[in-house]
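User: Quick sanity check before I run a bigger batch. Here is a single chain. Can you write out its predicted 3D structure?
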Amino acid sequence: METGSRWARVGVDAGRMKLPNELAALLPDTSDATDSGHLALDGVDLVDVAAEFGTPLYVYDEATIRGQARAYRKSLAAAYPGESLVCYAGKAYCAPWLLSVVADEGLGLDVVSGGELYTAERVGFASERIYFHGNNKAHGELEAALEYGVGRIVVDNLEEIERLARLCARRDVRQAVLLRVAPGVEAHTHVHIQTGVLDTKFGLSIQTGAAAEGVAAVRGASSLELVGLHAHIGSQVFELEPYRETVARVFQFAVGEQVEMREFSPGGGFGVRYTPSDLDMRPDEAARAVAAAVCEAALASGVRLPRLSIEPGRSIVGPAGVALYTVGSVKRIQEVRTYVAVDGGMADNIRPTAYGALYTPLLANRVLDPADATVAIAGRYCESGDVLVREAALPAPQVGDLVAVPSSGAYQLSMASNYNQVPRPAVVVIAGGRARLVRRRETYADVLAAEL
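Assistant: Done. Predicted structure follows.
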């Protein structure tokens, strides 16, 4: 798709209005404002994209994804003197087109289910660069992982160690594993996405002795090879100190248990900006901090530098995605609130309901107009809690306006549902000045396809 408009690049004085800095900081790297006041990505007018493909619609800027992936890979390689690998965490959003981009950028891949592994197989993702995570991997999923030859399985509990050991012995293979430990570090994020504390379903606790029991169990299984340790403290984390503390505790544990840590991963979870008040954690900043912490811990422990892997997911795809909705009604409740109802909501974005997540919407068809109203962006689903944004400062919305929600690339489509039997939205990727449909909009027949 191409348009005949000229473009006002952000930060370039072209004699026209530019996107406000606080807004541009939340949008994909190629974001522009057209002469007609429309939001555009890589020279493509999103109003035209919505007209062609309908709404709700998720639009991804490929250049932003590639830029984030390269920034992590190059920053970690520059900051860490040992071997390193950046693994994309597929749970953030897993689709064939995306995994092809991730593979092309030289990243590894974390999967947490047989479905994510199947998606990786579909695109021929290199098996040796796949790490299989999960706190309750099914028997069939472990078999699929062994069949595909994944590089590492991150074991989470004693039952899994025993189960995997039996499967490997039956196949006469020796599988390299990382043991996931819970370091007892609290990341300052929503309680639902804290994963490193004592009270968590993930990993084996260092504090209680369960992690030491896990090390012994893996050592006692001749079909498993313990190559290192893994820890993950949570998601949407902006502070670097919890990562440093996690690294120190895991290395201290490894020395105490005489674990030859050839590989180590402190996880990912680096935060992204959803609102102007959110901090900006750059890939180079996160990579440098983690690399420095590992170097310091290895030196203090008197051990060789392990192969270091980090697992950004949200921070690679989150900033690249924009969700588009059409306003269907405007309901004003005198002296209470104005509800602007759109044609999507909690079925394509459960985060506001599940986590109280905040967003900063804008009007894609009037992106340069001044905000003169405070409204609530309400979804179309039959739940009072289906409100995407409680208080949004916008130009007074009208029926037919196009609402754009930046930072929508992660944990929205991957958690989407067919609540109220509503088909899930289409997905478009913009690259090289063109829009490409990569997932068609579901139909009612699709919603019922599995019913017998």
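Residues 283-301 form the longest helix (19 residues).

User: Great, the batch can go ahead then.
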